[in-house]
Amino acid sequence: MGTYTVIKATAKPKPEVGEEGGPATTMSGPDGVDVVTFGCRLNAYESEAIRARAAADGLADAVVFNTCAVTNEAVRQARQAIRKARRERPGARVIVTGCAAQIDPAAFAAMPEVDLVLGNAEKAAPGALMDTSARVRVNDIMSVKETAGHLIDGLKDRARAYVEVQNGCDHRCTFCIIPYGRGNSRSAPAGEVVEQVRKLAAEGYREVVLTGVDVTSWGADLPGQPTLGQLVGRILRMVPDLPRLRLSSIDAAEIDPDLFKLLETEPRLMPYLHLSLQAGDNLILKRMKRRHSREDALKLVAEVRRVRPDTAFGADLIAGFPTETDEAFENTLRLVEEADLAFLHVFPYSARPGTPAARMPPVKGPVIKDRARRLREAGQRGLERHLQRQVGRTLPGLVEREGVARADDFTEIRFEGEAPLGEIVAFTVTGHDGSHVIARMVVERAA
After folding, report:
1. Rounded to 5 degrees, what angle do the CA atoms 100, 101, 107 make?
2. pLDDT tens readout for residues 84-139
3. Which of its termini does the chain have fewer beta carbons within 10 Å around, N or C?
4. CA-CA distance, 61 to 29, in Å (whole number)?
5. How far is residue 84 from each of residues 78, 87, 96, 147, measured CA to CA in Å?
6. Could you read off the pLDDT of 248-275 as tens digits, one per residue?
7. What is the 3-state secondary structure (H, E, C) of 204-257?
8. What is the C-alpha to C-alpha distance for residues 200 and 211, in angstroms, rounded to an integer?
């Protein structure tokens, strides 16, 4: 990225990773190798590592499925895509990995279309994609103590880079199967993270995103138990030429004092927090085995806005968790407005076998669907309120693709004309259309 690519505002928006585990991206590598990604941004990150490993090992004519287990629908769609791939490419080697393969390898091994099943700990290991000694290689993920070698290599898109600083989760929310796919929390050493961020900044990246399964737990397994705030502070001190550092989804129960202070004092730490809230009713939060209350969430939002008024908030919310009454749902619905949430990811509850929530009295399917709809409508109203507040403001935006930039607070900016890809440009907001702001460039490049 040492030279800037000038782009024109003509392309369609790039698809994002599916909220509910659906197929989101297919990366085509050399020698006819495709990597199909389901689920979260972290999976997209790791698919890049798989693609690089496939190229390094000389894998040819293969389709690798990096699966998601967050919902039954995610697993169903993965199986459907595997069957389709076998029909369309009968001679290709079909490899299945990711969380769904880690949790239930036998189900994928039973599919005649599948040649190899790899666990999460094995999927980017040297030679793993080429090894034919066993059809299923899935180890006990709970026994994994070290971070993988690819962890801090950095996923790079055209505008920003992602650094996976942590993997796994030590918490056991009653609805979640992911710890059994990812294992316990493991942190990448701070020195290696800083060095990777330094390298990415030197390559010309203007924004780096720190990502993981449970990012705010970073450091708990390292000597001295450093905090995420300490890591962020170290990055900002030691990489002074990085203009923007952003956090992925965080747990509202784990924002440490150092991180809070940086939100107040460090403009290079982006004013956007995506909170893993899941619900806005205290009894439901207790049954989910979450570690925060409704009051905790509202207090956190208020405290952050007090010291950083321009902060925008997003949240993950589950509609129709077992035992959720009308009153409990209304508490969650009201939270969207009370916390002034602008960016929602709404998940209709889907029972995962093996989780405690799957044994709880369920909410009827049509009710779940209706509640998810109402939450999304509330989220749309919240987004429109947020967008209206931007009208008339001048915002710096990182140019992501043709005619699209991203403001510090995660607001999507649409503009006409040409701008340098991956650079930070100033825009004056002239209006919005309910999903993004409309703006014009003020200067070609901001400082």
Report:
1. 95
2. 999 999 999 999 998 888 888 889 999 999 999 988 877 777 888 888 888 888 87
3. C
4. 10
5. 10, 5, 14, 34
6. 888 887 789 999 999 999 999 999 999 9
7. CCCEEEEECCCHHHCCCCCCCCCCHHHHHHHHHHHCCCCCEEEECCECCCCCCH
8. 15
